[in-house]
Amino acid sequence: MGRMATSGLTGLVLAAMLATSAPVLAAPVGQAEPARAELLRRAKAGDVSVYDRLAQSYLTAEGDQRDVDAAVRWLNAGVRAGDTACMIALGNLYFAGDDLDQDEAKALSLYKAAAAEGDALGAYNAGLVYETTADDLTQAVGWYWRAATGGDQGGMYKLALAYQLGLGLPADEAQAVAWMRKAAAAGSVDAINDLGSYYLQGYGVPVDEVQALQLYVDAAQQGSAVAMANVAAAYHNGEGVAVDLQKALSLYALSASAGNLTAYYELGQMYEDGEGVKASRAKAVQLYRMAAESDDDEVAEMAEDAVERLEGGSSETPIA
Questions:
Q1: Does residue 154 sit within a domain?
Q2: Which domain holds residue 78?
Q3: CA nearest neighbour of 127 among 152, 102, 103
Q4: How many domains, in total, are found in the chain?
């Protein structure tokens, strides 16, 4: 019985280029945020660099301490002063449409203004708007290129996918690999995982199951539920490591609990076939039902078909 290609080039995070979330403002890493009173004191003294952080303190507060109007006032002040962090943060509010009336045109304008000032994240977010709302991949790739060459890891990753899938520009394996490597080196966990898929499948690089596994482990240790499922698949199929069905079961379960519903499908197959566990049609159906809730249409359809097949009395698992 074959398995679903969880680490294939057209599976999981490589299935589509479209982003599933709104642009986000990158937060400082490893910094203790000053109390709002201190931020407010500095802002009133004219320190533009804290305007966006002060605004975030109003937006992330709970109860009566949350004040969207105050946040927007400080962000607008920052925009007028030319602060790109404020441009991006205000653009995010317009893009999301939760605290302000959604206005994608205003969001795009603010992202472009930030990019014009040299902010690579602004260029990346502009690319996301073109990709997800305007359905203009040519424009999106142009902005991703600008973000990537400006050092933004998200832009590098998107550019790698564009070259890989031939979206918005001609497909080019060498360019896809080069940009995926750059994105991985810049810290993109998705890129680290996908580079593992390149090595597993021999896409633009020699097949190297050991290297693939090392990359999957690296991405999984950094929190990627998809990569964790790919590590599970390696133990399931003996790719770069000896087969260990118990580890595969455990890692698929961890991946699923972390939000990767595709892993439920893999678990369903293992319970249906009795791989590393006592075969159980009832348990397999339960797991397939959970996989059917996946946002990945292909996974959901396969899971629904599996449920229908088992409830119809067939125990013959199709070749994935």
A1: no
A2: 20-135
A3: 152
A4: 1
Gap between the Cα atoms of 88 and 93, Å rounded:
9
Q: Is 128 part of any domain?
A: yes
What's 70's domain CATH number?
A: 1.25.40.10
Taking a C-beta distance cutoff of 8 angstroms, is the pair 257, 245 a contact?
A: no
At 218-246, the pLDDT tens digits run 999 999 999 999 999 999 999 999 999 99
**In Å, how far from its chain's centre is CA 293?**
18
Structure tokens that stand for 267 in this block: 């678990």
Tokens of 119: 């902010």
Q: Are 234 and 212 in contact (CB under 8 A)?
A: yes
For residue 225, being part of any structural domain is answered with: no
The pLDDT tens digits for 166-224 are 999 999 999 999 999 999 999 999 999 999 999 999 999 999 999 999 999 999 999 99
308 falls within a domain:
no
